[in-house]
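=== Structure Prediction Worksheet ===
Name of assembly: unnamed complex
Input type: mixed (protein and possibly other molecules)
Chain count: two
Listed entries:
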Amino acid sequence: MHSSVITFPGSNCDRDMDVALKKFGFKNKMVWHDDVELPKSDLVVLPGGFSYGDYLRCGSMASKSKIMKSVLNFARGGGKVMGVCNGFQILVESGLLPGVLLRNKYLEFICKNIFVKANNKDNSYFKDDKKDVYEFHIAHNEGNYFCTKEQIKEINNNNQIALFYSDENGNVNEKSNPNGSLQNIAGIFNKQKNIIGMMPHPERMIDPALSGEDGSIFFENLINNLK
Amino acid sequence: MKISVIITLKKDVLDPQGKVIHQTLDGMGFEGINEVRQGKYFEIDTNEDDKKKAEAKVEEMCKKLLVNLVIEDFKIIGSQ
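=== Predicted Assembly ===
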């Protein structure tokens, strides 16, 4: 399985993602934002960070960078694209996913472990996953998911919510919502479910000595589903 | 021609920064403030001399990059 991680100026989770993908068997290539063509890829990842210093709106500049034309073509042709944190912000700014990520409700940068509940397993990212609730890490200032009334209706009708913020037992409620996200949304799919954007970082949970192993479960399952 | 444009958050979008500014102004003793909403302001200097054409160009810039139409509105407030 071949993967590509795009590095934008200001990305800072690109190398962590590279380590995670390689650990679970992907042949990963790093791709610079100014490149025009994507290498052969079964999965393209937009990593976390602060691309272009979060100028204008988070992800807005990166969504217009050169490589994104190829990413858009790849995604529209059904290619698997995963955006994590700033990568999620880039995906909504590029129009590949609906909605927007606003400033966290209480204006705090949040950096902590949280729990998320997988909502839809009928897709390459969570199919056959033995877990329902994952402990992942979040580190963001703009993770407050928001969209229009029409968009949320469509998202629910098409079962596009990938992850909810929950407690460790999978209860989705206001208490388990760290940033004010609409309906506790932590991650969403496009209609076809080949594109996923999520605020939590699975790549930070792949080493039991440092963090946890719920990310390992996610990546192991992902590569098996893509084979 | 220099075009000025302001960008504001749509009415039903939460503006936590505006809220905090409001609270701070209350705390400083400014009375009678109903609401504070924070926005953005751009001045775009183009070499276009025709006002209509310059404004049309800036409108396109707004729709494609400067504004996120899910949460923001924009208004061209001056051309000189």
